[in-house]
Amino acid sequence: MADPILPPLPPAGGPAIEVANLACGYDGKVVLKNISFSVARGEIFFIIGGSGCGKSTLLRHLVGLNQPTAGTVKFFGQSFTDADTVTRRGLLKTFGMLFQSGALWSSLTLRKNVSLPLEEYTTLAPREIEEIATLKLAQVGLSGFEDYYPAEISGGMKKRAGLARALALDPAIVFFDEPSAGLDPVTSRKLDELILQIRETFGTTIVVVSHELASIFDIADRVIMLDRAEQGIIASGPPRALAKTSRDPRVVEFLRRGDLLLQ
After folding, report:
1. Local structure of residue 167 (DSSP, 8 states)
2. Which of 28, 121, 150, 208 is spaced 20 to 30 Å from 160 by Cα?
3. How many other CB atoms are there within 10 angstroms of residue 33's CB atom?
4. Rg of the chain over all Cα atoms, to the nearest angstrom
5. Cα separations (Å) of 128 from 92, 106, 138?
6. pTM for the whole thing?
7. Is the pLDDT of residue 6 over 50?
8. Mind giving me the DSSP string for 68-112?
9. Which residue segments constitute the domains of the chain, with CATH numbers given?
10. Positive or negative CA dihedral for 117, 24, 199, 213?
């Protein structure tokens, strides 16, 4: 049976993501509390902060890999946190995720890796799935590598293949967990350019977890900064404006490491 069709998305202008009073943690330990923010449609939004501040933890709770202990997450006005199974499955189809490692199946070709979401969430014929997977790989610059296995390509290519899979269902939102991790500066910059291209071409909303200042200053429209001691958000706004005007020493210390990038 075909998957249920979600109700039409609300008119343009409403936020893509709304987070209210979210509390995140593991095994009874609180990591983050009272997290509230929204992400506009088509925005490139970064979650930043030092190591151990809860960036990836927040991301895992946003996409449903972990259940928050309090608060709500909404996508396009619909609650994801409290959704029933049918609604939750439909909402999962509205976003994709690029994991830090790429998270490709080593025993599958790149085309087969990209095909997996299409096989799981659609009723398309195998030939149609193959054609879409080939197209998605082309969109990230991997034409000709469809039949390669992850072990046969570079780290940067693995990230792009993971991105092709994240784009398989034409999601309205794509989440990135430390996309530049393990990449050299040139490859990292090319990935940033690809993220910009995706936003400009498809109007995709982008949410990125990162501590890489070059990426933060080059492509982020807006950021929230988390702090480990505060267990929450200590700054929010355009990164260059925060770097120049914030009076919070934690924000200044983190962002002013990029003095040369601000010039």
Report:
1. T
2. 121
3. 17
4. 18
5. 21, 23, 15
6. 0.89
7. no
8. -SEEEEEETTEESTT--HHHHHHHHTTEEEE-TT----TTS-HHH
9. 42-56+93-262 (3.40.50.300)
10. negative
